[in-house]
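User: Could you check the structure of this?
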Amino acid sequence: MFYGSIFCKISCIKIISSTNFIFKKYIRFTKKSKCNIYAKHIYLPQNFLFFLKVYIILRMKKEHKIKRNLKFFLWFKKIGVIKYIFLIYFIVILLISLLLYWPITHSTYLEQLRQSGKIRFNYFDAVFIAASAFSNTGLSTFPISSYLNTFGQALIAISMLLGGLGIFTLKVYIFQTLFGIKLNIFNSEVTQVERGGQNPGQTKRIITVSITFLLITLFITSIVFILIFYLSPYGKFSDSKWAQTSNVLFNPYEKEFRNPKGNLDLSFRYGIFHAISAITNSGFDIIGEKSLAPFNQEYALQLFTLISIFIGGVGYPVIYDVYRKIKSLKITEKNYKITLFTKLTLITYLIVSFFGLLFTFIFELINKNTNGFWKQESYGNNFSKTFAIFFQTFSTRSAGFTTIDYYHFTQQSVLVHSILMFIGFSPASTAGGIRNITVSIIFLSVVSMLLGKRSINVFKRQIGKETFIRAVTIFSIGIILITLSTLICYSTFNLFDSETNKKYEMTHVLFVVCSAFGSCGFDVGLVPSINNFGKIILIALMVIGQLGIQQTLLIWGKNRKRAEYYHYIYEDVVLG
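Assistant: Sure, the predicted structure tokens are below.
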């Protein structure tokens, strides 16, 4: 009421003060016209009142719009940025799930299975797929290649693109690029949290450079993938014996699939969908139930997939940093220094990936199980197996594409890849997990403690204590979250698959949980058998992995920090 009365008073004052101005303008207009004086005296009051009414209506609409914007701003300021983002994400996932549950997105094959009673497709499945697509995870309770039609698959692709690029970031980019609308404080705060860097003043430039680069990369990779699918000699599904699939033999082929070789329409669909999924680090595919396994010897496809995964998961601030560095190499530009964030992101990524690759090689080579990965002849020669391990290790950082059956990996390798997914990739990107920056800060703190230093120093910079405390908090909550989720999901999975004669262990459950939290989308065959309660747990993990633990905690916290007017007496405690 207070704000409304103020706006009414301001509107009345402006209207009254503008009346004389309109009257003078009208007199000037009539003097310049060819009308006679008699006509002016007759029609002046009537025309003037008409113009005054129009002006009052327009002014009231403008003031009402300002009042409405002020109410929205006050509401937004009350709930905070994080809660607003979470609310919009929830609404978007809800809308996507309703469309996926609508039969218009289902294939005739799915409807036949539902009518015959062979499968039960409920609303939880639609919510699960919607959350998985929007959070760029890639987990699925059913194969979208055969259960969804072209419209449903296009909806999944759009959801991945919105979630990967950032729905608020993409909105700001479109309005800036197409309409030239400037970035206001409201949009700046939202995009700063969603995909921005540490400096709020660079948010506009970071968004413009990063999304432009990602869209160009998406266009190029789409063309490359279309050509690969159209010309690739691999993927000969019709020549395979798909019926025998067990835990002993690896069979990359399956029944419900069409070979894209020589089929331009199918190659076009596969190429664009796969490019979007790779850039956004989603891991979804419409190839079949076994991801890229039919192309496990198509190294060009796998190599371009890894490049797309890296570009999409490295984060907007890193892309902008590299752009500024390349631009500064010109003679006219000043030398630009790479930020500490970019250095830690890239170095930690390489170190973690190297050790993950090393341990996976060791565990698979020393495995004496005759049914193990290295003993499977269907995986090809030693080079093919080596490249498969290389592809899977780097794919665990933020994507979910696979060319093998993870059931053939040793328990140790599965555990290593679970740790890689738990760590994740870069902040301000499509990756999930606790992020590699968190791990790097904790590792640097341990090194500093071993060296007897009081501060955490790296690249001639000092890490603040608040940053270290946040890193430890994120790591600790991540461990607790994964532990509790694994224990709960252990009771919600069907740990024995009678069709393939596979028996799953606790390590496989941990693998799926870390896959959801790390926004990877890997599965060993457990997700389709999960019940509704387990789906809710995995949905929560996928959303937390997308938002990040730090942002998720702020959803339930207070918007403003309370000022501390007093401090207690300092006292140390003994640690272990």
